[in-house]
């Protein structure tokens, strides 16, 4: 029986102009390349963290009451372990842990970091939502300046527009200062408690601990009750400091020509989120249209056991971005064939042909034929691989340690010493 991949995962396949973008390995690399260009040019340094982290770190970083912690974490088992580690469901907690553990606070502030890689959540697979998915993460740690919030929003937008997407839109909101959140939680609790019996079991559990998370409930009954009661959004109840912070972020984004809508409905249910919150949506992804989102999380470092440290960041879902690109009929550059395809015309010439390929790789991609073949067969293989040049090593070439090169587009042919190959290819590259 043919083996199958795990539910909620997908294979990323070699380049093909026929496959959807979100199934092509080269498309994923294209997203990473564009993000790397945008973020490193903004001063962000690459960081990589483990794909699994201590369970308690993720619980504190994502939130004990979140659906991710309660229902969607993949526990990692190994000899002597009892679920003390989990596959990372998101990237921010691990980056903050690395910042605290490795003394990155000693670097000039703010510290701009970026990473990408797979994340894991045990949820029901659907369009744009997998159990293993991939994100680009950008985090700025060490400053509470509103300009960094605006810059983070702008950089996320720069990545999206650099990929050619035109149908995306920023939705911007604020979750206020800690005191604003406390007051708003009390307001919601007072409003919802008389109707607690109409709430879903999950929302009933959240009512005392984190009533703001009820606003983000996917339960239809919860949403019907919220529509009926129509609570005022937190954005309308911000204190003066939070309002000034939000207004400054908006002012900067307008000055930078960022196309955003103010969305009072954006919420973050965990206490360490503060101030700015945003999402980027695209209708082509489906009902759950967010390509990614971000916000300020000034309380996360303290929640993980470190000193109070302001921070802001975002995550962009690679699979979701590629689905959106497909809906706009965008494509990514396909990897070209090798610069040189080298073939030995007899078994006694394999060593010299292999030496030629190795020399040529200092300049560009050089592929060695798997076995000795005739010139006509070698030409056919080179054409199918999309090579620009074919190199042949036969009796005459071997006798003088040479190689015959033929440009496949022009038909121009030369024979040169093997040692001159890098220079000849450099002229073509």
Write a brief structural summary:
The chain contains 15 helices and 16 strands. The chain is of the alpha+beta class and 429 residues long.
Task: Label this structure with key terms.
Rossmann fold; 16 strands; 429 residues; 15 helices; 5-stranded mixed beta sheet; 36% helix
Description of the molecule:
The protein has 429 residues and is an alpha+beta fold. The chain folds into two domains: 21-177 and 238-327, 2-Layer Sandwich (BirA Bifunctional Protein, domain 2); 340-428, 3-Layer(aba) Sandwich (Rossmann fold). Helix content is 36%, strand content 20%. The protein has 15 helices and 16 strands. The protein has helices at residues 25-41, 55-62, 67-72, 92-101, 146-162, 178-192, 201-209, 220-229, 240-255, 300-303, 318-327, 350-360, 375-384, 395-399, 421-428; strands at residues 45-46, 52-54, 75-76, 85-87, 111-120, 132-141, 168-174, 260-262, 274-282, 290-296, 311-317, 340-344, 366-368, 389-393, 402-407, 413-417. The chain has an eight-stranded mixed sheet with strand order 1-5-6-11-10-9-7-8, with helices on both faces. A hairpin with a 5-residue loop joins strand 15 (402-407) and strand 16. Helix 2 (55-62) crosses helix 4 and helix 5 (146-162) packs parallel to helix 9. The chain starts with 24 loop residues before the first helix and ends with a helix. The mean pLDDT is 90.
């Amino acid at each position: 029986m043919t083996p199958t991949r795990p539910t909620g995962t997908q294979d990323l396949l070699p380049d093909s102009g026929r496959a959807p973008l979100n199934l092509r390995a080269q498309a994923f690399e294209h997203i990473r390349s564009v993000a790397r260009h945008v973020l490193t040019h903004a001063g962000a340094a690459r960081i990589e963290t483990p794909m699994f982290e201590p369970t308690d770190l993720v619980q504190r970083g994502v939130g004990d009451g979140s659906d991710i912690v309660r229902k969607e974490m993949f526990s990692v088992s190994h000899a002597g372990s009892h679920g003390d580690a989990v596959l990372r469901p998101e990237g921010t907690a691990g980056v903050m842990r690395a910042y605290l553990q490795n003394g990155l606070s000693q670097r000039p502030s703010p510290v701009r970091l970026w990473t990408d890689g797979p994340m894991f959540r045990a949820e029901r697979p659907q369009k744009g939502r997998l159990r293993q998915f991939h994100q680009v993460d950008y985090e700025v740690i060490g400053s509470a300046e509103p300009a960094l919030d605006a810059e983070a929003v702008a950089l996320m937008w720069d990545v999206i527009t650099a990929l050619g997407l035109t149908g995306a839109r920023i939705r911007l909101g604020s979750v206020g200062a800690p005191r604003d959140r406390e007051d708003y939680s009390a307001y919601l609790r007072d409003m919802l408690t008389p109707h607690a019996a109409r709430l879903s079991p999950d929302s009933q559990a959240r009512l005392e601990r984190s009533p703001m998370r009820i606003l983000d409930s996917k339960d239809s009954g919860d949403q019907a009750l919220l529509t009926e009661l129509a609570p005022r959004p937190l954005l309308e109840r911000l204190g003066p400091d939070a309002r000034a912070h939000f207004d400054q972020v908006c002012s900067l984004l307008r000055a930078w020509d960022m196309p955003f809508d103010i969305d009072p409905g954006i919420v973050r249910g965990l206490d360490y989120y503060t101030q700015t919150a945003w999402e980027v949506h695209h209708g082509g992804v489906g009902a759950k249209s967010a390509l990614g989102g971000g916000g300020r999380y000034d309380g996360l470092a303290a929640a993980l056991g470190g000193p109070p440290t302001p921070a802001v960041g975002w995550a962009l879902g690679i699979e979701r971005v590629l689905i959106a690109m497909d809906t706009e009929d965008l494509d990514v550059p396909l990897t070209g064939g090798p610069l040189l395809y080298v073939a030995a015309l007899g078994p006694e010439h394999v060593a010299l042909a292999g030496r030629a390929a190795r020399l040529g790789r200092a300049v560009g991609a050089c592929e060695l034929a798997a076995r000795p073949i005739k010139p006509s067969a070698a030409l056919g293989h080179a054409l199918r691989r999309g090579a620009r040049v074919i190199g042949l090593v036969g009796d005459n070439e071997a006798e003088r340690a040479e190689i015959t090169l033929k440009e496949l587009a022009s038909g121009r042919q030369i024979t040169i010493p093997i040692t001159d190959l890098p220079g000849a290819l450099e002229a073509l590259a």
